[in-house]
Structure formats: C-alpha cells, structure tokens
Amino acid sequence: MSWPKERIIRGFARSATTYDQQARQQQRAAQVLLAQVEHWSAHLPPGPVLEIGCGTGGLSEGLARLLPEREIWFTDLSAALLEVCRQRLGAVGADAERLHWEVMDGERGSTQGGYALIVSGMALHWFADWTGALQRWMGALGPGGVLMCSFQEAESFPEWREHCCRLGLPCTANPFPALEQVRQALGRGRCWAQEEGERYVSARAFFRSLKDTGTATSLKGEALGVGAFRHLLRAWDQACPDGVEVRVRCGFAVVQRN
Q1: Hey, what domains does the chain have and what are their CATH numbers?
Q2: What is the pLDDT of residues 26-54, one digit of tens each?
Q3: Pairing, β 141-152 against β 244-256
Q4: What number of other Cβ atoms are within 10 A of residue 127's Cβ?
C-alpha cells in the first residue's frame, strides 16, 4: 500500500482554521503530556527540546512556558499548521530567540541528536513506519534524555465499527497502533492509555469533526460510496436519537534513554 503522505498534509492544512475548535481529544492529550513535562523538567539533562508534529501549537505553548530556559524546535510536516503555531506563540509573547520552527517529516526527517527531550502529540499513528520512528527518536536523545508521545490507540471508535458491522458495511476507520505494540517497540519505559467518550449531535457531526481536525484522511485509501455513507448516517442516528457517543482511546509513552 502506498502511504498517502501528501493527502495527510493536505488534510491537516485544510484544518488550520478549524482544528482548535474541534480537537478536544488532542487538547486533553496535550495536557497529559504537559503534566509529564512538568514532572520531568527538573530532571532533564542539558540540551535542546524537539517537538514533532506541533500542529497549531496547543502543546507547544505549554512547552515554551514550562521550559523557559530551553532552546526548543517546533516541527511539523504541514507548513500551514507550523505558521499557525508560530503566530500563536508570538501572540503570547514567547521568547523568539530560543524558539525555532521548521517544516520536517517527523517520521524520516533528520534530527541533529543530543536532545534533552523529544515530545510528540498525536502524530505517531500517521506514520507508515511508526516503530522505526520511535527508534529514530530514541537515538536522537542525549544520555538521560526523555521521549514522550501520545497517539490514537487501536481500540478507538468501537461504535463506528459496530454500526458498520451491523449494517454489513466495510469500516473505513484507520488502523492505529495498539498499546502493547508500542510497549514492545520501546522495550522499556511507561506506556498507558486513557479512554473517554465524545458526544455529537449526530453521526454526521462526528464525521465532520474528523474533517475539521484534519484526521479524516484514510490511510488505506478506502471510502464508502455516497449511498452507503448516507445509509450509515441514517442508521446510526436512528439507533441514537439523542446524539451519538464515540469512545476514543489515547495511548501515551514516556521513556528515558540510558
């Protein structure tokens, strides 16, 4: 399967102005990671900080605040989102001299190495070779450096899958890394998951939220036909007349390099 990297970039670029209004799961995940950053901040070795997949800057703003003496590199594959991040931090008066922005492929782009901290929020599951990315990130840490990341976990969206199964329709939800797979890939450190329900007024509103956060791109290149999609929307709404709830599961990993 050819990995749809260009379509992923376009999807996120289109969401630059709507992402923050819809990205509730991503915002919660950012707060979890920032709590880890605060916990580790006094124990990090010397060196710069790298954020991979900074998006619109929800995590970036907290990094700049919690690590006021560190040089921080904010990177993203989407130039449009990176510019939103840069403007966001400028608006809150972040010290521009120690902050840097760079368009970079977090899966394959070069990293200089020697980082005290590498943080990535909700980007890992968009990579064709996420296990290889984890290994590269670990290799880019300096001695005693820490890797922190969050990702969409494999057990997300069970309601979507259940309704498709009930209707005999293929489910086009993306395949995500399982928590145990990430734990095995890292070999050490702490991995855990948090599950929460998201409520929407309708099934269409749920799918609209995916589009508005740039997360509607199918990694498998699959899509329901118009008729089948409408059938899914009607059936889901009929089964949940008071609005649909979709469970989302976010995985987290925190690992320190020896």
Answers
A1: 5-155+174-197+248-256 (3.40.50.150)
A2: 999 999 999 999 999 999 999 999 999 99
A3: antiparallel
A4: 23
